[in-house]
Amino acid sequence: MFSGIESTLSYIFVPAGMLLSGIITTLVGVFNAFLIISIISFIVSLMAFFITKTRL
Fold first, then answer.
1. What is the pLDDT of residue 2?
2. Per-residue pLDDT tens for 1-41?
3. Helical spans, DSSP H, in the chain
4. For 29-54, what is the mean pLDDT?
5. Between the CA of residue 17 and those of 23, 24, 27, 41, 56, what are the distances in Å?
6. How far is the C-alpha of 2 from the C-alpha of 10, rounded, in Å?
């Protein structure tokens, strides 16, 4: 009976754990993408600021 309960729990928890890890990796990837985009936009705005400052 105990082994049957264990197998049922593993059938429940293994897909749940895989789903959770997939969601976490997706969230981390989205966060990293936002971070990279914000850094790039910050660098571009700094460059544009310096270019306009040197032209003036």
1. 62
2. 567 777 888 888 888 889 999 999 999 999 999 999 999 99
3. 2-55
4. 94
5. 10, 10, 15, 36, 58
6. 12
Closest residue by Cα to residue 24 from 34, 32, 36, 35: 32
Q: Is 56 helix (H, G, I), strand (E, B) or coil?
A: coil
* Cα separations in angstroms, 24 against 19, 39, 42: 9, 22, 27
Task: Retrieve residue 14's tokens.
Answer: 């293994």
Question: Rounded to an integer, what distance in angstroms lies between the CA atom of residue 45 and that of residue 25?
Answer: 30
Place of tokens 């059938």: 11
- Rg of the Cα atoms in the chain: 24
pLDDT at 3: 73
